[in-house]
Amino acid sequence: MATKNSELSSSEIKISVKHLNVGFPLGEKQIIKDVSFDVKKGEINGFLGISGAGKTTIIRVLTCQIPKKNWEGEVTVAKISPEKKSNHRELLSKIGYVPQLENLNLYYDLTPMVNVEIFASNYGIDKDIAVKKAQDLLSILDVPEDTWYNKTRSLSGGEKKRLSFAIGMINDPDILFLDEPTTGVDAAKRYDVLSYLKKINRNTGTTMMIITHDLEAAHICDTVAILRAGKLLEYGDPKGLISSLPSQGQIARLTIEDLDRNKINKVRDFAPVKKVMRSGNEILEVFMEDFDINLSKLVEYCIHNDIKIISLSRDEATFRRYFQIRIKEEEEREQRFEQGGGH
Amino acid sequence: MSDLGGLIRKEFGRIRSDKRSLVLLFAIPIILIVVLGLTAGGTTTFFNASIISKDSIECSGEFPDNTSSEYAYSFMSIVKNNCTAFGLKTNYTATDESSFQNAKSECSNLLKSEVIDIYIILPENFSEVVEASKNGSINIYITYYIDGSDMTAVQAAEVALMEPLAFFRMQAGLLENMTQVIPYTEFDVPSWKTQILNYALPMMLPLIILGLDMNLTSLSIVSEGPLPRMLLTPTGRREIVLSKLISYSAVMFLQVTEVFTAIAIFDLYCLGSLFDFYLVLLVTGFCGVTMGLFISAISTTEQVANQIYLMMFIVLVMFSGFMPAELLPPWMGVFIDILPLGHSMELLSNIALKGLGIDEFHLSVVLGIAILFLAIAYIAYALKTKLKKLEV
After folding, report:
1. Are B102 and B94 in contact, with CB atoms under 8 Å apart?
2. B47-172: which CATH topology?
3. ipTM over 0.85 threshold
4. How many CB pairs under 8 A join A and B?
């Protein structure tokens, strides 16, 4: 796969990955297959994919958690290669890491301030400076001041999550890696968590790499990567990817009476239609060429073919819809590949 | 690059928050010392005895007196009046089988109910044989019955019986060609000191200090959720293990100091140097810390760590010298030499009771075991975090 963002100058690139292959052992059980991408300074980059896609494996290579014997390719993080063991300490001093679960990042029996101080000391940061930085970060992240000196155990789930972000940021990292930052957060609070990440990015200019299966995360990402079975399917900014859909991602949403497979196939047969997706029991989402011109023709076509439209609305595709389409395309491609005997 | 002080502060924070372990660590030795210190009792060196005489020469009075010519009564009188290790509770003259059985049955009941500690049976021909012995060497067989479940009493009785026999020989004039050995316990705790405390401490302190420190440290690595995350900072494995070693050793130092102060308050009888005694306790505690680190490093979960701890502790106790090496098969006796408790107990006993200095061999073995476990703990932790996927 060709390297994306290849026009960037190397000074702007914080993460550079070229032809990365990972296997346990390498060459046999391939987890990551020829993945290449660059992450620019100050960007929020999202690695999206379902479980088992290989997202965590990539982040583990970038954070020196996988020995070189298990991977090949050209990788630099903050201009340092994780290839050599002697580089690890320097590389780790330039990154921050926020694990998926807070109990892997926080000492619940200690106070938030002590937690931040402990991790600051790992980077050789003086205690007074650490306290000041901790206060700044906890303030940015709206962790209430009256909880700073209570036991971390007493914090709410959201506060613990934000404290975890603060710990990840304590060394002013060049790059902050976040593993599933919205895991364990209820739907109503997920947006808040993502907003805080955006806020940190805006206030500090820190480059972020988020791995997640939460497609809502794409809202805050400057670039996203879609990963499936170890392969990078797409890489780019979310809006650009959505606009690569027919008619820049415009959708005709039809509610059709007694929607069944025959009616779906009939709609699919309409020449300008490029993609049809069933959404709910009676709702069909239709992508087509020359949307404005063909929308009224589609309605006429349906009437002509005894397809009763109860309602019609016009919408724009979300990243979630783009992701589903792209994954489905890949599945169909693989299916065809397998049916064709692998040719 | 990373600050070891921060890691040590973190360890202290974690230890401080574990109130239950701290109570165990600091309260249990004190409770033990207080209980032992306030217990005035001594060892079983005094025996309440009954004597059954089968000697056929009848006695005229109710109780023998020194004017009696029968040797059985002389023996009873000596036990009653002259011995420091014996007191005569009851005596019986049983010249026929039925009265002997009755007397024996009664003595057995007294022994069971712990009214007496021993009963002695003098044979039918006791007086005649003693008389005849003056002209030659004829053996007399005296039988005694004792509570066999009390091993220390069994051993003590053998020694204690020397005393009435010695007095009896003197009185009966049976000293010709005889060397009388009168036992004297060289390394005894003075009677005005708390005997139980002073005898028990050299045995129990290493067990308690090593066991409790090992217990506290055995969860130090395995229970620390964010530890793998630490390895994604410039902090290395060496600093992590070192910070734990320093912190837990400091806690151990406090514990040993507390124990040492407590035993000083309860007037520890120590013939040797108190500093040596303290030093041995510290080395034993250090060994407990490194063994705990080893358990924590090789364990995958807290439950596994607890199980390994229990297993190791039982093995340590079994091979601490509790079962004498000479009673064990030779290959099993080796465990006493390669495990630390036996050496620590030996060191403390020698210092406290014999007034000896530190035996360099024993101390080196304990220290060597500690360092060996520390090295294995570090290697095991490094391998575990290297080979196993970091779950962060």
Report:
1. yes
2. abc type-2 transporter like fold (3.40.1710)
3. no
4. 88
